[in-house]
Design brief:
Blueprint: H1 13-23, E1 38-46, E2 52-61, E3 67-76, H2 86-98, E4 107-110, H3 123-131, E5 135-139, E6 157-162, E7 165-171, E8 180-186, H4 190-199, H5 208-224
Parallel strand pairs: 1-4, 4-5
Antiparallel strand pairs: 1-2, 2-3, 5-8, 6-7, 7-8
Helix pairs in contact: 2-3
Amino acid sequence: MKPVLKHNWDLAETEAIKLQQELSKKVTKEDQFPEIHYVAGVDVAYSEQSDLLVAAIVILEAHSLNIVESVIVEDSVQFPYISGLFSFRELPSIVKAFRQIKTFPQLVVCDGQGIAHPRRFGLASHLGVIFDIPTIGCGKTKLLGDFQEPSKERGACSLLMDREEIIGSVLRTQENIKPLFVSVGHRISLETACNWILKLSPRYRLPETTRQADQLVKKVLSKIY
């Protein structure tokens, strides 16, 4: 699976911000996808002892949630940690992993933000645009915005707002568990994104896509050290 849009990743902070502003205009916030048979989750873990990172893609069958393929890439950190520019730190390795997959997903769930981002172009939107694939941002924590706490039952949600703009939903995937922050990545509506996150989270707070990718990168890192 190859990117349809390529750009240089070795950018200064000001150049990266300018690129985000330009590419954010390409984000589509409506449902534009065929029937979804496979859903991918992506995650990156970092070594505490070196500049090593491990990127993983785990692809699940959409209805059974069984794993059908997984890919691991071991790489090194090339971009500093700068708030709002997370995709420049993680996506180069994730792109390498996507080049190796054999099962083409119709949807990707990212452990991070989509348009719930200062420039409306978080990691999920960036990934979606460069591959032109439907993506969802599903973060454990909020990057920005205001919201009212949703009620305690599974499926309860409230809007995540930045000033007067809706940038996401605060979605409770399990009863009495901390909610997740769901936002449009690319080629999907917010309502559909929330429905998919609930479908992918039948038992735990995190969607299976994120849970399985997270477990995989941690397992690989533990074997290295």
